[in-house]
Amino acid sequence: MHQTQINRLEATALNVREHIIKMSTDGGCFVGASLSAADLIVYLYSEFLNVNAGNLNDPNRDYLFLSKGHDVPALYGTFVELGLLEKERLQNHLSLNDNIYWHPNTKIPGIEFHSGSLGHLPSVAIGVAMDIKIRGGSNRVVCIMGDGELNEGTCWEAALVANAYKLDNLIFVIDRNHFQANMATEDLIPLEPLHDKFTAFGAAVKRINGHDFEALHEAFSAYPFEAGKVNVVIADTVRGKGLPSIERRADRWFCNFNAEEVDGLLKELHGEHTTQLTSETLVVR
Amino acid sequence: MTYEELLTETALNDDRFIVMTAENRALVRNIPAKLGNRFIDTGITEQTMIGAAAGLALRGRIPVVHALASFLSMRAFEFIRTDAGIPKLPVKLSSFIPGFLSDGNGPTHQALEDIALMCGIPNMTVFAPADEDDLVKMLPQVWKHPNPSYVRINTRKTDYVHAPFEWGKAEVVSIGEDVTILTYGLLFEQALIAAEVLKSEGLSVGLINMRSLKPVDERAILEATRESRLTITLEDHFQTGGLYSIVATVLLKHGLTANVLPIALNERWFKPSLLPNVLQHEGFTGKQIAERILGYKTFFTQPKMAIPEFSE
């Protein structure tokens, strides 16, 4: 990957993180999970997926399903950067006059399916991938899941079925940010060795740094990883990536910052200083 | 025509149709060979099957999915509600061995709340045919409709020839001055017997096949409760959330009340056995139903009932 390309992706991702931070006030949003998934989503829409404003209803487009759902600010931010969504609409976050809220919904063009209930979209993605296979299509289906989401049994049912039907046109991407709602995953329901688990389910697995565009590019360029096998990318990420004051903090899952904190975090994103956070640390959703 | 013949013919004539099952093949034994890759068996994964059905429907397919009624309506409930109900996708649920049809399986397999659950999902449509003739008469319309549907599959063969199916309409066999029985599913067979007994005791008896439970035929309910001194809701479902509740809702909506006797399973499961024994034990044979309405015993002989073939 060219350095200019990497620079461009990094600039896009920085803008997306700004959008996320700006959505984390007046009701707040799931900031930590959005920041961990931001680079993945920016990469996929910028470099991998055949999706653009002109082909959102084309049956030959690629599909991205955001199964974890609560990272949707990263997706909306990416849509803004790629011209799929007007920037002004992000200010309508949680407004009754728009449809931008804590979980994705199909009223926003480009959202393929609503989510929020965990463990659903792996199977919906399977249905789409099956249909593409039946029709002999070459489009690709990506489903982003959270690591905490993997507690849900239906993720593993889906892994069994995807393997049985040899869905090598399907890519499960795990945003492995090492946290679920309130705790580190390994302190609650341990997932490791995660690579081995998916391999044992018959998948072709790659584990990479989910914030490294070159690594993402190398992994996704290898699609399909192995003929007849479902593809799995375990992307190791950092919850809250880009904001040292909330990175890897179990108590910073859902955040509703005040205006002053948002200003501070925007500066922090650009490396200017570390924000003093005074707002309530933990809002359980 | 059998269920399987109808489904095969429908799918062969319209390649939007996909036949799916969570390894419940009793109704679709011969379909894999005929449909090839448009037959999908996801194994014992009711939830994943529904999610995949939603994905297929997103791509313009009409998936007809098969699973046992209790696991389809309960284990996969949230997937049905969230992945088919919210986006109003044409996922067509074929619910096998609902109600008393689970005969010897035991309470794990007794779907006695499925009507309540499915009617509670916005956009869902719900049907309960009296027998195979009724089933094959309704399915072409049910499958072609844009909404998701839940059908209590009933492939029992009877001699009764049903009226053509009309969307959202009940099959009004008759309205009685004394009693009208509202029922659905396999108990229609017993209600016919009960009506015969009641007539022989001198009553004016009506019978309505509530084949379409959602949308429900409000006019049929209002007519029955207005014209009859007593209305019976007869169902192999818990008393809560089924036909009795639907009738109550309709009456209340129109500011009315009526003399309604529910015959249902009230806060309990039924004793597992072969179907004729279940009906006898639980008091749901035609003769017993009539006697519950009359309040006294009769000399009527309950005809023998055909024992259904067991299939998983």
Report what the structure shows.
- By secondary structure, chain A is an alpha/beta fold.
- Helices cover 37% and strands 10% of the residues of chain A.
- Chain A has a five-stranded parallel β-sheet, with helices on both faces.
- The mean pLDDT of chain A is 95.
- Chain B folds into two domains: 3-152, Rossmann fold (3-Layer(aba) Sandwich), CATH 3.40.50.970; 171-294, Rossmann fold, CATH 3.40.50.
- In chain B, 37% of the residues lie in helices and 19% in strands.
- Chain B has twelve helices and twelve strands.
- Chain A binds chain B through residues 59, 106, 112-114, 117, 120-134, 154, 157-158, 160-161, 164-165, and chain B through 37-38, 40, 42-43, 45, 47-61, 63, 78-79, 82-83, 86-87.
Please outline what is shown here.
Chain A is α/β, with parallel strands linked by helices.
Write the layout of secondary structure elements.
The complex is a heterodimer of chains A (285) and B (312).
Chain A (H helix, E strand, L loop, with lengths): L2 H20 L8 H18 L14 E4 L5 H10 L39 H15 L5 E6 L6 H12 L5 E7 L8 H4 L5 H7 L3 E6 L3 H9 L9 E6 L22 H11 L16
Chain B lengths: L2 H11 L3 E5 L9 H5 L3 E3 L4 H13 L3 E7 H7 L1 H9 L6 E5 L17 H6 L5 E3 L4 H13 L4 E4 L18 E4 L4 E5 L3 H14 L4 E5 L2 E3 L3 H10 L2 E9 L4 H11 L6 E6 L9 H8 L3 H9 L18
Parallel strand pairs in B: 1-2, 1-3, 3-4, 4-6, 5-6, 8-9, 8-11, 11-12
Antiparallel strand pairs in B: 5-10, 7-9
Helix content of chain B: 25-40%
| N-to-C series of helices and strands of chain A | HHEHHEHEHHEHEH
Mean pLDDT of chain B: 97
| Count of discrete domains of chain A | 1
Strand content of the residues of chain A, in percent? 5-15%
Query: How many DSSP-defined strands of chain A?
Result: 5
Low-pLDDT runs of 5+ residues of chain B are: none
Query: In angstroms, what is the radius of gyration of chain A?
Result: 18 Å
* Strand order, largest beta sheet of chain B: 2-1-3-4-6-5-10
Order of helices and strands of chain B: HEHEHEHHEHEHEEEHEEHEHEHH
Helix tally of chain B equals 12
CATH superfamily of the largest domain in chain B: Thiamin diphosphate (ThDP)-binding fold, Pyr/PP domains
> Share of helix among residues of chain A?
25-40%
Which structural category do the helix and sheet elements of chain A fall into? Answer: alpha/beta
The end-to-end distance of chain A, rounded to whole angstroms, is: 40 Å
The CA-CA distance between the termini of chain B, in Å, is 22 Å
State the CATH architecture of the largest domain in chain B: 3-Layer(aba) Sandwich
CATH architecture of chain A: 3-Layer(aba) Sandwich
CATH class of chain A: Alpha Beta
- Shape summary of chain B: globular
